Amino acid sequence: MYKKTILDNGLRIISNNMPKRQSVAVGIWLNVGGRYEDSAQKGISHFLEHLLFKGSKKYSCRKIKESIEGVGGALNGFTSEELTCYLVKIPNSYWGMSLDVLSDMVLNPALPQVEIEKEKGVILEEIKMYKDQPQSYVYELLDDLLWPNQPLGTPIIGSVESVSSIDRLKLKSFKDEFYNPLNITVSVAGSISHDKLIKAAQKIFSANKHWQKSDFLRVVEEQKKPQLKLFQKDTEQTHMALGFHALQRQHQLKHALGLLHVILGANMSSRLFNEIREKRGLAYEIGTYVKRYFDTGVFVVHAGIDNSKVSAAVELILKELKKAKDVLVTEGEFKRAKDFYLGQLMLALEDTLDHMLWIGESTSTIDKTYSISEVIKEVNAVTRSDLRKVACHIFQEQKMNLALIGPLKEPEQGLFQQLKID
Fold first, then answer.
1. Domains with residue ranges and CATH for the chain
2. What gap in Å lies between CA 80 and CA 240, rounded to an integer?
3. Most-buried pick from 101, 119, 130, 398 (CB within 10 A)?
């Protein structure tokens, strides 16, 4: 059973006791990410995340890694559009030490100047690397179509110009503003006592005063017609990302969208995999994914397409999306989708790390943690008509955005004429 405590300074702690597990997963979450940055400081959340592993008040860079890895644990971190997370999975007897290491990284980073300069060089090379990888860069092009001139439409990693301008003063100021208790959630899953966790957390975090809850600008979505972005590159296949403005995180049809994603492109049984790859051989890789944010979302079809068959593949993909609007999914597809959707969740939540991520993300973003039984109840309430409803809501021409990277020879107008789904 999940247990939650809020300290006097506003810091949230959520735990799930998983008896007989040999591991404990610990995560410290910050309500800050790419959406919280203006264009001049774009990439600073990601930059700061990297630097926290370079040393803190109590632990050197080497000591951080040796403390965790020296007992068989794993240490990592990530930055997303709305969150930053520092995490450890470790044998359960060492959870207290791992919390101490992570918290010192977050509260007391050293931010050494020499490491700032080295890491800046690393990130600038990382930016170049992504642009050299069409299977990654195509999503950057798509985001720019979906949310032009907005933080959500620009890369989390930043640009060469913005990263180059970041210095120690800016990093420290950003950290002081956003790394405060009102923006922090500690999530823990494994064989652990919530009471012991609270005692340890109070010693570490109680002296930190709250400042303010961070926030970001809401998106503006004024798209009125389909959009296409072509990037000419001499590649062996054409990389495609087709995106539609979709549902926000807490939308009442969120599970319907998740089930539609399963049916259309989540696995090898999906419609797009079967029609585009298995039957026609037009693509090696094809699938879908869904992202949900506080105030918006996106549904994406991605594929690596034979360079000579781009038009045929796009036409067939749009045909399958239109079919989801026009015809109810079959009873058999619907049952398999529900079983897959819930089965994947239950399998993931057997693992302490995945369970920590599950409760940490939901507590950080919506200040609520769903039990498996609550999710099962909500998913079982979804109908086939709900899937058709969500397909009609999302798959509209004015919400369509297509990014392509490859040796494209077709004129833009030719592809625009194909972007018909109504």
1. 2-205 (3.30.830.10), 227-418 (3.30.830.10)
2. 22
3. 101
